[in-house]
Amino acid sequence: MSALAMPQASGLFSEKPGILTGQDAQAYFERRRQGRTVSAALSGTGIVGLDGRQVNLTLSPSDVHEEEEMSSYLAGYSPARYMSDVAAPLVTDVPVLFDKFRKLTVANAFRRANVLASTQGAINEVDPETEFQNYRCVDRALGGFVPHMTSANEKKAFNTRQALGRRIAWALGLDREIRVFGAGGLLSTSTNFDAANRITIGGGNEWDTTNGDPLANINAAMEASAMPITDWFMSTPSMNAMIQNANFRAHNRFFIGDDRQAPQVTAGVGAGNRDFVIPGYDATFHEVPAKVLNEATGALDFVLTDVCIGIHRPPSGVPTTGEDIITAQTFRFTGLGATDGFITREFDVEDRGMAGGRKMVSGYSEDVVMVGPNVGAIIINTLA
């Protein structure tokens, strides 16, 4: 009779059937050491005897490892770079929430005057013509609550307050990007430009079609603008279509041949961005890669759709002399001392939870204004 088949009355096994442990297991291995026969079969991580009981011979990874969060790995998403600060630069000295700003009209630069004079006659005169526009800053802010109990139990790589701060900053940035480039945004709404500054591409001539000619459309827009266009903005699909367009490639080949690429420039928005110039054009072409979650479909949609936007920016970024104009400007309230108008603060909230917590708030007050609707242009229907 084998050891595993011996009756329980012999004292070799415990009364309760199951996995062999303690003295039972020691007796089993002692009989094996003495060379005595034990009838058993391998099963899983141990040996199963004739009576169905199992002897565990080795430790598995689950026996020695308790699952917990890795301390060196934290995955997640981050938004693409936002371009609204380039398209609508900040005015950094806005001491009040609402006011007027003055600009000189088109007549000052483009209206012809009678300059013919005589030795004794009166000299013809001109006056500077100006007009007022209004701005009104609107508060835009987000907050979040971090319970003290949560902070006290943080482990590994995740810092709740840091993650919350980034989440708030990303949400504010996305909101601004949509207000400038998104559906109904300041620069993506065609009617915010003068009628002459709207270039509509007809069906069959989109940039991703055989008959498409991006530079012909861009040339028409440049000719319509009252001032030179310094920057072009387009979505990733529109930029891809332009680069792959045969007419666009032929233009660049004419200047630089087949074995060179157009020089890359950063245009003041950071190295590595998809911004470039091409021969024969002074303007910088900018990709607007930002995406927004479509709540209805669950897809990530590009903020900027099938339009291409051209603007004019003076070298100073902010017109101050009456000799500069700009397409769009952001008036952001700086009356509380922050040079960029961005306010971040924290305060205790004692009436939430047993231990209370900290509330984080970030935001600003601003108004994005179309200053020169005849400066720059919008190209509509770039994609089929």
Helix/sheet category: alpha+beta
CATH homologous superfamily placement of the largest domain: phage-related protein like domain
Major sheet summary line = 6 strands, mixed
Strand fraction equals 15-25%
For the largest beta sheet, what order do the strands appear in spatially? 8-18-14-9-11-10
Helix content: 10-25%
From the alpha carbons, calculate the radius of gyration and give it in angstroms. Answer: 36 Å
* End-to-end separation: 85 Å
Brief overview:
By secondary structure, the chain is an alpha+beta fold.
Describe, in plain words, how this protein is organized in 3D.
The chain has 384 residues and is of the alpha+beta class. The chain has 2 domains: 3-62, no CATH class; 84-110 and 127-380, phage-related protein like domain (phage-related protein like fold). 21% of the residues lie in helices and 24% in strands. The chain is built from 9 helices and 18 strands. It has helices at residues 22-33, 61-64, 84-87, 107-110, 148-152, 160-181, 214-224, 236-244, 246-256; strands at residues 40-43, 46-49, 54-56, 90-91, 98-104, 130-136, 138-147, 198-200, 231-235, 275-276, 284-288, 291-293, 300-302, 307-311, 328-332, 343-349, 357-370, 377-380. Strands 8-18-14-9-11-10 form a 6-stranded mixed β-sheet. Strands 4, 7, 15, 16 and 17 form a 5-stranded mixed β-sheet that branches. The protein is flat and about 130 Å long. The model is unreliable at 1-17, 38-45 and 264-271 (pLDDT under 50).
